[in-house]
Amino acid sequence: MTEPDKKLSAKQRSRRNFLGKSLVTAGAAIAAPSLINARQNQNVSAANAIVEGETMIKLKINGQVKTLEIEPRVTLLDALRENLGLTGSKKGCDHGQCGACTVLIDGERVYSCLTLAIMQQDKEITTIEGLATGDNLHPVQTAFLENDGFQCGYCTPGQICASVALLEEVKNGAVSYVTSDLNNPPSLASLSETEIKERMSGNLCRCSAYNGIVAARSGLRQCR
Fold first, then answer.
1. Distance separating alpha carbons of residues 123 and 107, to the nearest angstrom
2. Closest-CA residue to 130 (of 170, 80, 192)
3. pLDDT tens for residues 14-30?
4. What is the pTM of this model?
5. Whole-number Å distance between alpha carbons of 78 and 100
6. Closest CA to 187 of 139, 221, 216
7. pLDDT computed for residue 39 by the predictor
């Protein structure tokens, strides 16, 4: 304790200590946000360094492994069309509202415009180009031809892929919004027109060829 401090009363010394500690605390509080922001900026910079530029990925499409170098932001739809030349999947709304870009990923229907290509590595991707076996069309493709389930054909690839998924969903006992008995889901044989329309409501046809489309799907009730 210095000589001037000895002359201070206990009360005065206590007040001085309190003010000193308060200043230290206030300084730390002011500095903390700056330190946090600096750390966050470092993290952002590190993250940007990882995702900037193109990345090498492998996609299994229609049974074949494809290697391509793309930016992480590229959608599966753009990768299929622009990088791999698989133009069967169509870009309609590009917002996941029309269904023209529908493909199958591990057997489930997916809007390819809403998912990133980089997220689909190690998965089975099937596009409209991969449904037929040689010159033998998939039963759904045949049904669409026999029932005139299209007009301009732009939405047809997505309609067909979604219909293929619909068959598997029904076989696996999946229910829909209009299923009356959730404990007794419809079979392919008992699938009603109302069920078909509801289950395919995510695929739009601008030409309004819905009668032929529903007829094509109804004709698949005998599929096993």
1. 10
2. 80
3. 666 655 666 556 555 55
4. 0.76
5. 13
6. 221
7. 65
